[in-house]
Amino acid sequence: MAKELKTLVKDTALYGLSSIVGRFLNYLLVPLYTIKITAESGGYGVVTNVYAYTALLMVMLTFGMETTLFRFSTKEGEDAHKVYGTVLRLVTGVAMVFAILCLVFNAPISALMGYADHPEYIACMTTVVAIDAVQSIMFAHLRQQHRPLKFMALKLGYIIMSIALNLFIFLVAPLIHASHPEWMGWYDPDYSVGYIFVINLICTSSITLGFIPELKGLAYGFDRQLASRMLRYAMPILILGIAGILNQVADKITYLFIMPGTEGEVQLGIYGACSKIAMIMAMLLQAFRYAYEPFVFNQSRNKENNVMYATTMKYFVIFTLLAFLVVVFYMDLFKLLVGRTYWEGLRVVPIVMMAEIFMGIYFNLSFWYKLNDETYWGAIFSFVGCALLFVINILFVPKYGYMACAWASFTGYFTAMLLSYIVGQKRNAINYDIKDIFKYVALFGAVYGISLVLPIENTVLKMACNTILLIVFVAYFIKKDLPLNSIPVIKRFFK
Q1: Does residue 146 come out as left (phi exceeding 0), alpha (psi in the -120 to 50 range) or beta?
Q2: d(Cα 173, Cα 484) in Å, to the nearest integer?
Q3: Cβ density class 369-398: b for 16+ within 10 Å, e for less
Q4: What is the pLDDT along the chain (495 residues), one digit of tens a residue?
């Protein structure tokens, strides 16, 4: 098991490098956007709203085929090439039909979404999401083949291109336009939101060139019987995915319906910008998921897999709690990621981050029904959580604004996590180290609580005290579960 866990850690590190570094660089654009697009304009609320729709559409266009690819590629008697080719053709076909229909009916779709004045926003993003759906299968293929280096190169390539274009549009272009407007006939200083979507389209289209070898999978053929079996497996995952993504974006989609007008766009922009800080946790979870999902399916026949699941869960909880403390303890630094006009929304960050932790634990717990081909359980759990989210948003957003959105996400993910654990232990019991996990949770609660009640106004002094509290948490972890004499290189100093 030690060898397998070592492989998991290595792949997580490589995926994490592309995910964390890439997203961190991308998050450097948030202060750029939130400075150039003030909270009062509501422009960032438009960006938040449109990207929420794309996230939902992405789940629908991939319809569970990423997980299905991993599952069927590792099944005995299945041709991995045939599986990949069939999945790629299915998703490509659906994505192409979707893109064509959206472009043909772009005007009424834009009007329905509230963007009749800017149908090009919707045209750009529907095209992007169609391309992304196809790319997601090719990225999954790279993960399934354990090729994190190419995965990382393509992810970072996209980010670098995106940053370069954004810096040009929002910093360089205005200076050139101010001094030599005749050189910039195409540039409109008031079209900042639109340029965000155009840049996304350019970068997504360009990165497709790196997938030319993976596109050869279309030549592997299409097996109708295999497709039928995969679709039966994937449909519950699709439902699960829709429910799961609704837990993440339903508040951002419905917000402008519950609270329409400029005020709604302003509040949504504040919530969306500050949630970006909380998404640091999402970066860690994504890196873990990229490595863990194919790893679990490849190890599904290992007799020691239950022990591995329990060990992984424990360390997952420890590291996510540590990440939470780092962000909230140094919030005065992380808040610089958003413009000053958005700072009033920083109070949502701890709530949203804890919701992300619940989602990560829920993901860890999900494999009992995925490996047993009982994916309908995931759909049930997620829809219960999603229903709670909708109810809380509808009832409390008019009175409490975006704070209700944060608590709705918290409640929805906690409920789905709890249900998955209870049912999972009855149907496929795993001996999780609950006692040890709760010890870490108790220590986490103690150091976080102390930080909240410390009567210190000076920012530097408060961060210094928080650092001491953080060291206490890390020291306990090192003493109990990560002895330094067991770590390569470092161990030579702790014999």
Answers
A1: left
A2: 51
A3: bbbeeebebbbbbbbbbbebbbebbeebbe
A4: 455 555 555 555 565 566 566 566 656 677 778 777 777 777 778 888 888 899 899 999 998 888 888 888 877 777 788 888 898 999 999 999 999 999 999 999 998 888 888 899 999 999 999 999 999 999 888 877 877 778 888 888 888 898 899 989 988 988 898 888 888 888 888 888 889 899 999 999 999 998 888 877 777 778 888 889 889 888 877 877 787 788 778 888 888 878 877 778 888 888 888 887 777 776 766 666 666 655 555 555 555 567 777 877 888 888 889 889 998 999 988 888 777 888 888 899 999 999 988 988 888 887 777 667 677 787 788 888 888 988 999 999 888 888 998 999 899 989 989 998 998 888 877 888 889 999 999 999 999 999 999 888 898 999 999 999 999 999 988 888 765 554 444 444 444
The residue type at 204: T
Q: Which amino acid is at 94?
A: V
| Interatomic CA distance for residues 436 and 432, integer angstroms | 9
Q: 259 is written with which tokens?
A: 């609270």
Widest distance between CA atoms in the chain: 71
Cβ neighbours for 65, distance < 8 A, ≥ 6 positions apart: 87, 90, 91, 137, 140, 230, 234
DSSP letters along 194-260, please?
HHHHHHHHHHHHHHGGGGHHHHGGGGG---HHHHHHHHHHHHHHHHHHHHHHHHHHHHHHHHHHHS-
Distances (CA, A) of 416 to 266, 304, 354, 381, 385: 30, 27, 14, 5, 5
Angle between helices 148-167 and 2-16 (to 10 degrees): 20
The answer to whether 233 touches 373, Cβ cutoff 8 Å, is yes
Question: Residue 459 burial (CB < 10 Å; 0-12/13-18/19+)?
Answer: exposed
Distance CA 184, CA 284 (A): 41
Decide: 70 and 293 in contact? Cβ < 8 Å. yes
